[in-house]
Design goal:
Low-confidence stretches: none
Distance between the termini: 34 Å
Number of helices: 8
Order of helices and strands: EEEEEHEEEHEEEEHHEEEHEHHH
Shape: globular
Structural class: alpha+beta
Oligomer: single chain
């Protein structure tokens, strides 16, 4: 199995490129983005040393499908997907905050709660809650978007006080966040899943708010298996998750949480193949479709470059 971990394209009209944790973003004519979902994988804000075959394709295709299924709630940046690992879209001015919405007390919110901190991002969490317990109503726990290092929790009040987002815009994206989460919850339920938590990113073109980046993927979201959740929660048993959490759990079990001096455990071919299989499983459960691997190519980069250049030319984007 091959994995794409780095790109270095030079498209016509290209003005700059940004290499993120898992995506490489090419700016075209300062109006459009060519976003390549690589097979890189990150955890605890650290890019792990091995790529995961098909991960980029999976993330790109799940995001594209959910973007298409939510356009009635909010317009989004997507224009087309000229390659299984690529989305071309509109360049927006991003808000410097990620909107995280949680339906259950799990993952990092549970770790924070368990440590004795019962207020997260200005939201008070009731005493006596258990891991994986459902909130009476989903809570929104925003984070700042760090260019480097760790994102930081922040409250609604602090976002507005600092002028990161205007009060008017924040209240709009808060409503949109809840509507998107409700839509994702309904779609997940049809496939026997529970959408546990997720994050959304927003930006603007002029006065119009747009949904950006990925949506409801295993990197940005967490899912439970619906028919297992109630029994496992009632008995205090581990709840099976479909998310990237299993990667974080494997890292923690091997002494790595992204802290100074810690070393990433060896990612053997067996570990890499296992992670790839889990991503494929999640794709099939989230979408209800069989995963079709992109046509094999001796050079994935050449395939992507050819597909993107052809699309840009045909659509006179450059």
């Amino acid at each position: 199995m091959k994995a794409l971990t780095r790109t270095d394209f030079n498209f016509e009209g290209q003005t700059k490129v940004y290499h993120g944790k898992v995506r490489d973003v090419y700016f075209i004519d300062n109006k459009y983005l060519v976003m390549v979902a690589t097979d890189r994988i990150s955890a605890f804000d650290v890019i792990l040393p091995e790529g995961i075959p098909y991960k980029g394709q999976i993330l790109n295709q799940i995001a594209a499908e959910f973007l298409d299924m939510t356009t009635d709630i909010v317009p989004n940046w997507k224009i087309a997907t000229p390659d299984p690992m690529v989305t071309v879209g509109k360049l927006c001015k991003p808000f410097p905050v990620e909107m995280i919405i949680r339906g259950y007390l799990t993952g990092s919110s549970w770790r924070t709660y368990k440590s004795g901190q019962h207020t997260i991002c200005g939201v008070n969490i009731p005493d006596g809650m258990k891991e994986h317990q459902r909130f009476a109503e989903p809570i929104i726990t925003p984070t700042t978007k760090a260019e480097e290092g760790h994102d930081e929790d922040i409250s609604k009040e602090e976002i507005i006080r600092q002028g990161l987002i205007s009060k008017e815009d924040y209240e709009k994206i808060e409503v949109i966040t809840r509507k998107l989460f409700q839509r994702g919850t309904e779609i997940a339920a049809k496939h026997g899943l529970i959408l546990v938590d997720t994050k959304y990113e927003f930006g603007k073109i002029g006065d119009q708010i747009y949904l950006m980046d990925e949506i409801h993927t295993p990197d940005s979201s967490r899912y439970f298996i619906a028919d297992q959740y109630e029994e496992c929660f009632a008995k205090g048993l581990p709840v099976k998750q479909l998310s990237k959490e299993f990667v974080r759990e494997w890292l923690m079990a091997n002494g790595f949480q992204g802290k100074d001096g810690q070393k990433v455990p060896e990612m053997t071919p067996e570990i890499v193949a296992g992670i790839s299989d889990r991503y494929i499983e999640l794709y099939e459960k989230v979408t209800g479709k069989a995963f079709r691997k992109a046509a094999d190519s001796d050079d994935i980069k050449a395939r992507i470059e050819g597909n993107v250049k052809m699309w840009l030319k045909e659509n006179e984007i450059n």
